[in-house]
Amino acid sequence: MLFNSYTFLFGFLPIVLAGFYVLGARRREWALLWLTAVSLLFYAWWRPINVLLIAPSILINYGLARCLERTGEARPAMARAILVAGIVFNLSFLGYFKYLNFVEGALNDAFGVGFTLTQLILPLGISFITFQKIAFLVDVHGGRVSRYSLADYGLFVLFFPQLIAGPIVHYREMMPQFRAAPCRFDAENVAVGVSLFFFGLAKKLVLADPLSHLVAPIYGQAAAGVPQSITEAWIAALGFTLQIYFDFSGYSDMALGLARFFGIKLPVNFNSPLKATSIIDFWLRWHVSLTRFLTAYIYNPLTLSLTRKRMAQGKPIFGGRNTNFPAFINLLAMPTMLTMLISGIWHGAGYTYILWGSLHGVLLCINHAWRSVRSRIWSNTKQYNRRVAPIGFVLTFVSVVGAMVLFRAPSFSAALMLWKGMIGVYGATLPQAVFSRLGSIAAWLTAIGVRPAWTSGSLLMAATIRIGLLLGIALLMPNTLQMLAAFEPALGVKPAKAPSRLERALTWAPSGTWAVGLACVALAGILSLGELSEFLYWQF
Amino acid sequence: MTDQERLTALAQILRDLLGDESIELTMNTVREDVAGWDSFAYINFIVAIEAEFRIKFRIAEVESFPDVGSIVRAIAARAG
Do A308 and B47 touch (CB under 8 A)? Predict the structure, then answer.
């Protein structure tokens, strides 16, 4: 069941909470077992058969972790072999369900062979769950996880607020919380949880979902080969960027809020990414827990070993004054491209996702190269940041919005057509109604490539206002993490040292005013519940 | 070598890496305190330390240093 369904909101959640608090008042262990059991039910709700897939996978991973622990540091080669086996097992599991169809299609494209296999249905949240399990095995191998039981591990994997679409959590940040959680009703936790949840629900249902009606037809036309003017192309690009932005932001808030009902704080996953002033900054704000995973388990080990190797050979490393171009290629560009390629593939089995990841990889490389060169030609970092931040923001924004077209477009040719449209290759359009009132100016506009389209002026007006408003919220408003900062809405979030005036005005407090405000937000969300829609990130 | 000397050496390494002469480190400094010290720059910092002090960290350690002080202590434990 979806977080944004009647069943979840008025059936599952109240029963789960009541059970949790009642059992918690007797014995904490019962409450935690209850939480594990209902999480499994939550997972089984879509397709009960999924349980038959996830349960053995949990048992096998748990068994491997136990073996790893016993082998320990006494036999490092053996421990390594077990770890590799575990990673291969989890990746094969993911690969089978997620990529088999794609590989088969790619082989058919390349060699024209007529492979046909039954279309596999992706077990829900498998991409997220797989990464989390791999991280656990690596952590056990690295000695970062010590005591755990099957019940602990089961709860860690299945905890329903983050089961389907993250954040990707680490055992070492979750288990101490579960062990310390009082498992009782706590007014503050519930107040913070309710607020986060309804902010998220409203973002998803009121802000994100209606945008699909706006952008879907444009992507559909582009896919059908109809050229899109600069007007439509930008509406498609900005519209989808905002749709996925509020969809993911809303989901992340809901996950934080739901976990908080149980006294658990999840890590930050989404932190106003469109405010980023560089691509590096963007990835530290967008899907933070994925960036953290990829950095810790792919990029860092790779760079660490490559950098050591180069240094042992006496060649310059990347960074610092003695760096050179081969160092940049070997130690930064190569690992970055590989990491972002994996990120792209992880997001979806399709060429457009792979290209999207690679594009971000290239942008990150450019960002790093510039950073390395910049410090030599402009050494005053504070002054640089102040003066260049606005330019950085615009460049980042345009790059992110442009790249998002790949994320949504059904094919590469559709994305290419929209990009061409965005830079004006197919001219500009204005509504017919506006055109007919312009008189002689219309002829002049036609001469420079503007043509009438968009049957109604009010439609264009509505689209522009909607996109403008949403951009305003994304770029100017403090986010939920900032509003609730005093109550640590996500792990490690602290109040800003010097909050802006707007941030101070929008600081959440358990007050009457906020109660009324939040009731309105909740009502807006609940009234939009009818139109069931999945989260964009749930297909990954 | 004292912790203070190690700290001074670390600060110089980081200044060179980030090209920012205004960087100061204390035992309690965390990555978020230093502008531009992202996860990408962090790995270079670690390898530069390994070269400077002729030591080698384990990847699990590298991932779990909570602050600069813990790096200083890890160096001290190795280099003696």
Answer: yes
Percent of chain A with pLDDT over 70: 93
What's the whole-number average pLDDT of chain A?
Answer: 87
Contacts of B62 in chain A (CB under 8 A): 300, 304
CA distances from A231 to A244, A304, A401, A461, A467 (A): 20, 46, 15, 12, 13
This prediction's pTM:
0.87
Confidence grade of residue A238 (pLDDT, cut at 50, 70, 90):
very high
State the catalytic residues of A. Answer: 347
Which residues have C-beta within 8 Å of that of residue B52, sequence separation ≥ 6?
B9, B13
Q: Sort out which chain A residues have CB atoms less than 8 A from B9's CB and list them.
A: none
Pair A24, A170: CB distance under 8 Å: no
Contact status, residue A89 vs residue A82, Cβ threshold 8 Å: no
b (16+ CB within 10 A) / e for A404-415: bbbbbbeeeebb
In angstroms, the CA A80 to CA A349 distance is 29
The tokens for A12 are 């599952």
* Partner-chain residue, chosen from B16, B17, B63, that has the shortest CB–CB distance to A296: B63
Model confidence pLDDT, tens digit, residues A266-294: 999 999 999 999 999 999 999 999 998 89
Angle, vertex CA A46, rays to CA A43 and CA A47, nearest 5: 95
Q: Which residues of B16-32 are buried (b: 16+ CB within 10 A; e: fewer)?
A: bbbbbeebebeeebeee
**CB within 8 Å: B47 and A381:** no
